[in-house]
Amino acid sequence: MLGSCWIRSRILASGNEIREALESSDDAAKIEAMETAIACLLAGEQLPSLFITIVRYVLPSENHQLQKLLLLYLETIEKTDDAGKLLPEMILICQNLRNNLQHPNEYIRGVTLRFISRIKEEELLEPFDSLCVPYSASPPIHRPSPHYSLSLTPVISNLEHRHSYVRKSAVLALDAICRLPRGDLLAPDAPEVVERLLANEQDLSTRRNAFRMLARHARDRAVAFLLANVERLPEWGDVLQMAALDLARRVCGADPAQKPRFMRVILALMQSRHTAVVYEAAVALVRLSSAPSAVRGAAATFVQLLNSQSDNNVKLIVLDRLEELKARHPDATRESLMGVLRALGTPDLDVRRKALGIALDLVDARAVEDAAGVLKKEVVRVAGAGADADRGGEYRAALVSALHALARRFPRVAGSVLAVLIMATNAALHATVVDRLVEAFPSIVAPRVAGAVLWILAEFCEERADLHRVIKLVREGVGALPAKSVLGASLAPSRPAVLADGSYATQTALPGSVVGASVSHISTPDTPGLRAALLAGDGFLAGIVAASLTKMLLRLHATRALSAPALHALTAELMLLVAGLLRLQKAAEAEEGEEEGAGAPPGARWALDEDARERLADCLRVMADEGGADEAAQAWLVETRDAYAALLREAAAAEAAEARRGRRGASCSRTTRSSAGTWGRSAAPREAAEPDEAEADVLRATRGGSSAAVVGSPQLTSSSAPNAAPASLATGARLSRVVQLTGFSDPLYAEAYVTVHQYDIVLDVAVTNRTEETLQSVTLELSTMGDLKLVERPASHTLAAGASARIRANIKVSSTETGAIFGNLVFEGTGYAERNVVVLNDIHIDILDYIVPASCSDAAFRAMWAEFEWENKVAVSTLLTDERAYLDHVVAATNMRCLTPASARAGDAGFLAANLYARSVFDEDALVNVAVERAADGKLSGFVRIRSKTQGIALSLGDKLILKQKGANAAAGSAPVAASA
């Protein structure tokens, strides 16, 4: 309260200082005082006592800056009383406005006309005509009412001013006056005068304003002028062309029968030299006509813009339009395939990815060879540029995936892309693939690539000669045995070394952590890449080598192509090789003591984990058991391939489901746009169903392509959702959005209707005066915590006894950090010495309102998991006894999508591990790993690990999960405490 009193006393002191400055003769002091007064108005203080002082001492001033500040002040102050009637003292400014409209300085005239264009009170405009002489250029016009026998002569007379700034401001003022409720009575002759001005005007901005004014208030005149000047339309300026395009859209939206008349206008605008006009004309062309020729013309225009503009944002917008056009007219847009592929020359990866996606959908049997040729050239070009140039690794992976998709859809081009894409997708190409892989294998250095190639060779080599060749290749790659680890080979005796300052020091040839050693540093011309990777401690690759040799040995045994002595000799040789890998582990363990004595760090030894050791041991047992070779062949050769085929089928089904979801989303979006008039064709004139294109863009931006979320109810959908809830459920959902802010015994009762959009939060606060007296200056004061920002301060209100008011506040959201909104209701009552404050309940913003389930590949998930540094580990604390039910509970609590397929979660092993993924509306990733184990007593234990690039998401999701666990346990009768680390 003391703070409020101090602020109010300071405002009063400031008001006195402003009055003294205004009454002085110093223009500089007056300017400063006017700026201070306007700042107080914007802060919510009206200072009504200053108005008469300003009228007396500022209104007669000839200073241009003072006149501009005066108009800003007049625009800001309250001009009406509580009943909506104009304050009597406002009549004092009418004479000054009339004088300014006839001022010899064009700047004074212009700013005054701008002020008039913002006036909403018609009573301020009525006295103009009685103060001025008639406008000679306008003929007498019959006026329907004697009370409104006005022609706004001072405003209209400025249409003939020599300066274009005054003329265009006068047109804007007439436009604003005509939009008033009784504007046609205030300026009945305005359309005729503006039409005459438009025919003779040369200034581009003035012509644009005049044309838009006619389009709003005299559409027939605007249409007649446009159709009469179609031939000269390409010569118009860009702003005037955009106004003409807007008129065409609105007329055709109101009356579809007018579309043929405006096709000439659209086609003429598509020849404009302004790219923005060309783009909008192409969009309007598709909207007006769905004929194949019109669609092809629009697609060609989009492609031309795509390849001619250098701005990546423009390219992405054009690609979005092409994608919408492709979804609506797939056959008519196929001719744009090669133009879309030319966009791959853009350095931006996002543009390349979107262009690739659109191009793959446009490819058909006739153009597949050309598309494959372009993609092959692009792969070769990127490979020559290096992996680090233009994020070449990611781009090259996208190109390879595109080639793979083409080869799967059109098998006849698989042979042509084989030189670039070494993948077995066609049984007729197996032999060629094997030959190419065998040739390339000795030059492979990357362990992951070597493992993948070994798996392919072991899986698809069927002939005896191929099997012998691959076995020989592996033996040469592994090298001579027994071998020593990199640590043992490089751990040389200590020897003196000369430092940079000339002193001696003892050094040990220890390469650091051997497990993480780079194969490129170990590999030499005498050490093949496969051997280098094994010596570097890659246990996973060792398991692949052993399993591949076992498969090929079993296949040779099944073919009966070798004699018994030859088969036994080969078996012994391969067993020696696998045993050598195990002995390498034993040798590394024996060397560990020597390493510690030489100063090696603990754990710096050959890393063969338990899984790899068990894999090597299984391979040795299968090779040694000659009697069970048939059963082993069934398990290793047949069942493993069946399992892999099932995995591929599941992946294809998941991909198809994802594609169906995408198409369904696009279809729903198109349906919404069609109902709104973006693409559709209405059978009756319904201008309301044809919103402006800018309004549709704003709607998509605020909703983000999805339904609006509600605080506390993340599952609620908007009314435009394709699967709308029943009316009763929708009513309950709307009621759940209401948050009570004050109590029933408070002088002011307030409740808020909270709606969370993509980037902002809208609070509709209903305030009711529960006292028996009038409360003045009722102000909603809000503050935020977190990444929330109040856009503007709500205005003050005066509430009579029992009256209500609706206050709206907009809050900007910049990230998914959990935030809160808190504040007060401040008011003044009769007899109160100081302001009263009612503290409001806090409104907490839920993170689930900003994250949506999403999908990503396993490789992308692992890469993000390794990259993200913020982790929150939540201990499992639940009364559920089924691990799959607990996983469903976590998915529902975090609003995420489970990436682990259902087949991997099947069975009754008592253990479950799954990955969850979601993205925020700000393109932030959220990763969750669930690891749950069922104990012997049936209780679940384990951890839920949450990772994110930002701390807020990880902590907020963890807190949300803990609350959900507590709520579920409390509902079941118990609530153990969950731990969070």
Report on the structure:
One of its GO terms (biological process) is intracellular protein transport. This is Coatomer subunit beta. Residues 16-127, 154-422 form the Clathrin/coatomer adaptor adaptin-like N-terminal domain. It is found in: Cytoplasm; Golgi apparatus membrane; Cytoplasmic vesicle, COPI-coated vesicle membrane. The chain is 52% helix and 12% strand. The protein is of the alpha+beta class. Among the domains are: 229-289; 425-488 and 513-626, no CATH class; 729-847, Coatomer, gamma subunit, appendage domain (Immunoglobulin-like), CATH 2.60.40.1480; 850-971, TATA-Binding Protein (2-Layer Sandwich). Strands 13, 14, 15, 16, 17 and 18 form a six-stranded antiparallel sheet that branches. Strands 3-4-5-9-7 form a five-stranded antiparallel sheet. Helix 20 (368-385) packs antiparallel against helix 21 (392-409) and helix 23 (447-460) packs parallel to helix 28. It is elongated and about 120 Å long. Mean pLDDT is 76; it is low at 1-13, 130-151, 485-523, 595-605, 666-729 and 974-981.
Care to give the gist of this entry?
Residues 659-695 are annotated as: Disordered. The protein is of the alpha+beta class and 981 residues long. It has 36 helices and 18 strands.
Topology:
Elements: H1 2-23, H2 27-42, H3 50-57, H4 64-76, H5 94-101, H6 106-116, H7 153-157, H8 164-178, H9 183-186, H10 190-200, H11 204-217, H12 219-228, H13 238-254, H14 259-269, H15 275-288, H16 292-308, H17 312-328, H18 337-341, H19 349-362, H20 368-385, H21 392-409, H22 430-440, H23 447-460, H24 464-478, H25 486-490, E1 495-498, E2 504-507, H26 519-522, H27 529-535, H28 539-559, H29 564-597, H30 610-624, H31 629-676, H32 693-703, H33 727-736, E3 738-740, E4 748-756, E5 760-769, E6 775-785, E7 788-790, E8 797-799, E9 804-813, E10 820-829, E11 836-839, E12 843-844, E13 851-853, H34 858-867, E14 870-875, H35 883-894, E15 897-898, E16 911-920, E17 925-934, E18 940-948, H36 951-971
Antiparallel strand pairs: 1-2, 3-4, 4-5, 5-9, 6-8, 6-10, 7-9, 10-11, 10-12, 13-16, 14-18, 15-16, 16-17, 17-18
Helix pairs in contact: 1-2, 1-3, 2-4, 4-6, 6-8, 8-11, 10-11, 11-12, 11-13, 12-13, 13-14, 13-15, 14-15, 15-16, 16-17, 17-19, 19-21, 20-21, 22-23, 23-28, 24-28, 28-29, 28-30, 28-31, 29-30
Organism: Prototheca wickerhamii
Subcellular location: Cytoplasm; Golgi apparatus membrane; Cytoplasmic vesicle, COPI-coated vesicle membrane
Protein name: Coatomer subunit beta
